[in-house]
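note to self: the first set is below, dont mix up w the second
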Amino acid sequence: MSNHFFLALYDQYWRVPGSSLSLAVDTVRRFLRADRGNISKAKKRLEETLKWRIDVQPQTKMCSTCLNEDLRSHYMQHVGWDKRGRALVYSDIGMARDKGHKSNVEHCIQVLELMEPILPPFPNDQYIWVVDFHKFSISDMNPKMAIACLKLFGRSYPERLGQMILVGAPRIFNGFFRAVSPFADPVTVKKVRFIKGPDGKGGGKKFDLVVNEFFDAETKAWLVAEMMENRLRWKDLARRKSWLAALITADGTRHGWWEQNTKRKSKFNSEAEEGFDEDKLAPAVLSEHGHDIRGCPSFIQTEACVRMTNFAIQHSSRGKLTNLLVCKSAKKSTAVPVNTETDRSGGTALQG
């Protein structure tokens, strides 16, 4: 590595809020790996990212659509770890009510930024992204969204994506994927794998074959429970799930009880409701066998989940919808202690 190149970028990186010596060194090395040692390409990519981070400060942002429009706008979250300790991100395309490409990118950035401080050291400083397609439809085939997300991975988070596992993708998606692939980083595209759903539907390799390769029994059981519950109980349960509500209330087993109290006039809700009326609470729908949408039991006790919970509560107190839930949950314990024995992130103490 050129000393001049390293010192120039290192000097710029110090202007990024939250940077540190080890973080700066690791980041420069990661960008160099992404461009196979090509200094000019790595320099250009990193300079663009540094400017973006200084201008936007993405580590301070939370998805405004989830906070202000609909608690079920997006269904994408860090939920566990793979066998190597890499972060597991799970998303369900059909569960997301918001289809706008800008707001989905905003939510994606939130998820990625929350993971950054707690990722393990190289070579496990990556995430495995599992995407469930069980309710994929024409409305989800927005090329702007796909291209924006893929470019985000390549530009600002290179070498972070270990694998993207697409579960139960229908045949119609194959042509769409081929159409948007040329606009994405080739390295990112090569990391995409197709597998069948746990119900055997969709194209690709067998579900058990790939899932067993990456995840332990506990994490696999969580994935199967989540996916099958969303398939078998779509109308009465799945459509009422909200990760944000689960984090704020520290309970991912009860769903939809807040629906009457979080309605606002928006592109998602036609009715308006002011205040938090105890008499208008919707009956809660329970996940089966205590399934918690925040992740498996061992993950809920980790620093990563605590960090997400605290971050959600901090920002939700200012949200048009979520401030109601924060007030409702104020008397409850909204975060659990960090269990260092079960934390597989390799991270240090909570930051911020």
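second set (the one i keep forgetting abt)
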Amino acid sequence: MQEVEGHTPAKSLKGAETEERWSGREQAERVFCGEERTESRIVFSAGEVVVYSARAPGKESSNEDAAAVVYIKDACTLLAVADGVGSQPSGAKAACVALEALCEVVRSSHPDADSAGTAILTAFDEANRAVMALGNRAATTLAIVEVRRREVRTYHAGDSGVLIFGGRGKVRLQTIAHSPVGYALEAGLLDESAAMEHEDRHIVSNVVGDPQLHVGVSSPVELRPRDTIVVASDGLFDNLYQDEVVEFLRRGSLRKSVRAAAEETQARMSVPVEGRPCKPDDLTLAAYRPSGRD
């Protein structure tokens, strides 16, 4: 990442952990692609973000997940997670290309808070073209959260998802996975436990890299002072139940909460235990809280 005025470069904490502080007057970005394991905290005037990404336990090939944080002046922050699908190396490359497209659109269009949504939809189009150009049936999911002042809107394709909940655990928004199992869950044909154990859980109906791509866009949601936003790959949602994700992340230090959720998720991936989910996969999540929280 290039250094910009008012932006403090990342300082190493230990291993793959970093911390950065961004000035509210500058546009900045941070992309995490192909990381074996990384954990980063980014702090700015509007709030803080913690990103965690790691490849599946025991996996020797690249992490096919990627994440990005894009900061557009004081009023707007974008969080994005992509989960590459298909064989290596096309999956990992597709995820990175999609996030690079998002960053490039932001750089070239210089959107303000009121035009960020248009930039995001343009980025989906550009990402789709770029991923299709890779060939080899490359594809990726993509979930983006736009935090605009005290308002949140989500954009997604695939089964990477977004969850917004309050300090007491009330879920205020959950995206629908673009998959047969996701649609069945939303329709009430499956409960959460049956969905997590379903043999077709891995099938995704809508991806970046498909000429028929469509983007799911939510209605705006008011961001309250004690809210937490989580955008993550299915590595999180296939191994922790929704109420477990909420309980891990609704309170306490955001960094410690993200780390605890990630450690439990990877423990479940590593050691199957009857009665609890176990789906080894790459894991990426980005969690956001607004400033001024108690």
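remember for set 2: The chain is about 30% helix and 30% strand.
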